[in-house]
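Convert to structure. Protein one:
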Amino acid sequence: MSQIRYVASRVIYLVIVAVAFALLAYVLATFGFIPKSVSPVVFYAAITVVFGVWLTNFLSGSVVRYLGPKIGNRANTAGNLIKFFGYIIIAITALSFFGLSPEVALAGGTFTGLIIGLGAQPLLSNFFAGVVLLLTGALKPGDEVRLVTSSIPYQPTTGLGYKFFSPDFINVGYRGLVQEVGLLYSTMIIETGLELKVPNQLILNSGIINYSSESGGEGKRQVRYEFNIRFDPEIVLQKAKEVLRDVEDVISVYISEQSDKEYYIVVVEFRSNTDKGWRYVKSEILKRMIKLQRELEGIAS
């Protein structure tokens, strides 16, 4: 409640200051302190733009700070929407001081918009793509996604040729957690922990694999581990389930395929939306599978 009072008091303070500047411009114009060649309308429009932008940014930041603890990174989407509509209102209001109605302003800006658009095409394309992403919710803060596009250079690590015939194929692109969907760029934290800023136009033209989609069911990940065919598959599966029985996040253990003539692959599926972090769970599973392999090698020898 105290935060709401603070925001309300700051808004009232800003309105009072803006009105005071407007009255000052009117008084200066009335008593001839402003040259007649300079219309007071210019000052009114400038005051509207300056204080309007300040108010819009303040309200956007306040909303993000207020909603952040409740909905996390999704608060950034609400803040960006406030900026988008706020800037439109500021532009229309400022133009109205010059006697232009919103309809005339929009119509008159068509030709100018075409000229500017040719020079700022990448900027505008990213802007409108960001608006589409914000309004449609195709990409939201907190989503874990993979961007599948050839526009972002990505080279998977090469390996043995036979592995590329596996159904567990590599999706070319970057996977990460969406932090913010901005008006020009969107930010995601990729699997290496680095921050990746992607132009919105590229995202709009990309395929998006959403691992946290509500329609996709429970988030899952896999650990694939190879065992030599000299180890009995029944024994391997039994012992794997035994060594993993106290790992709560493990969902299933099964043999996926034979990778080549000498090895078959055991897949361990586990939940990826665990509070402990999926990297911790994956690490624990790998440690236990390595110990199991050494145990089996000891028995075989």
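Protein two, convert as well:
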Amino acid sequence: MACDCYNRVKDLIREKTGDPKASFNGMVVIDKNGARWIPTIEIFYHKKKKDGTFNKNLSKMDLSYEYCPFCGKKLEEDYEEED
């Protein structure tokens, strides 16, 4: 990660909650450049039915992001495409 916000905020969360194992959601992405951990946020939404109305129940999904939500820096260096 290009910034230290993740560790700083994780430490604050652990301090405020008193839980030494408190952490963020995230996922491991494996691609041609190797494996890396990406932080995610959980979003909730109503799926749309074929008739255009929305389901009653909420669905959830993990959403990753490219920029730090705390400082705005890009999380990962851009990888150059190999031809």
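Residues 5-64 form one domain. The helical segments are 5-17.
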